Each structure stands twice: as structure tokens, then as C-alpha cells.
Task: structure prediction
Amino acid sequence: MIQGKEPTDDDIDLTPTLRAARAGDPLAWKFLVERYSKRIFGLVFARCQSAEIGEEITQSVFTTIAAKVLGGEYNDDGRFEAWIFRIAINRLRDRMRRERNRPDAPSGDALEQVASAKATKRPDGEDHRMLRMALEKLSESDREVVLLRHHGGMSFKQISELLDEPMGTLLARHHRALRKLKELMESESESNERTRPDATARGTGS
Result:
């Protein structure tokens, strides 16, 4: 359901890699792309359920990263991961805002409708569907914390720096969000059980 956490910049020193990337070393760029592209894609896809948007934003993020690193605009301060995910989150927020404000958009969130349409074609099981629906019911701020932690693989320290929130507040919000997710999924599961045809038949039987 929720992905595991990979090692973060807190665990390794990216300074030599970034120095090599700034010098145009293709192996350094290969390392950065392999390390972050799947996580950024996973973060975006978990929010909008669109592979096309996930690819678009992931490519956009790395285009920006390459321009700033090669152009000398980024000075490594040990927070590269927080920086790259800040760019990804901002691109995702902008894309969601544009979709909501489209003049020809149907009522409701266009990306939520994409998610609903794709969910019927994805053989990921009922638990995935319920998790996606539960995530949509969280507040935007709580959903971001969950996605950054469990799909972006970021540490709480990095999320705290990224969102500019005290660690204690962030931990409490994360705990509350997970509890809310659990409650929502349990409620959905109970509702599905009550409306299953076999359950209805049992309820009307002699």
C-alpha cells in the first residue's frame, strides 16, 4: 500500500556527486536520476493517478535541476533532497491549480476524475482503491505530509525544512493523518461489506 522509505540525504553525502554533476559528469547525473526520479514520479502519481502527469512533472523537475546545477545557481548545503522535492511539490500544486481553473473543466477536480477513471482499470486490488479514496479526503496539508514521507521517502527533518514547520507539529500532524486514513479505510470497508450482494441476500433471507 504505502511505499517504504529509502535512504535520504541524511544518510549519505551527496557533495562529491553534485560536484561531479556540476562538472557535467554523466555518471553523476545517472546516479541522481536513478535515485530521485522514481520517488518524484511516485509522489505525483499517488496524488493525481496520472502516469502522463507524473512523467511530465518528473521531467520538468530534472530539467530545472540540471539548469540550476550546471549554471552554478545551486550551492550544495546538504539539503539537496529537500530542494528537489520542494520543486516537485510546487510543480504539482501548480498543475492541480491549473486543472481546477480550466474554463472547460467539468464540475469537480479534473484530476480526481482521472483518478476515478484509471482506478477501474488498475488491477491493484480493493485496498489500493480505498487508500486512494481515503487520501483524497484528507486536507491538502495532511496529504502532502503523508505523500512526502511514504512516497517521497523523505525524513521528518527534511519535510520540516521543506514545509517550514516545527518538528513536533509535523510529527503530530503525520500521526493524525495516518489515524484518519485508517478510520476512513475501515469505514469504507464496513460500508462495502454491508452493500455486498451476498450480505444483502443474507439480510433478507428466511
The radius of gyration is 20 Å. The CA atoms of residues 182 and 198 lie 25 Å apart. Residues 15-195 form one domain. Confidence is low (pLDDT under 50) at residues 1-5, 105-124.
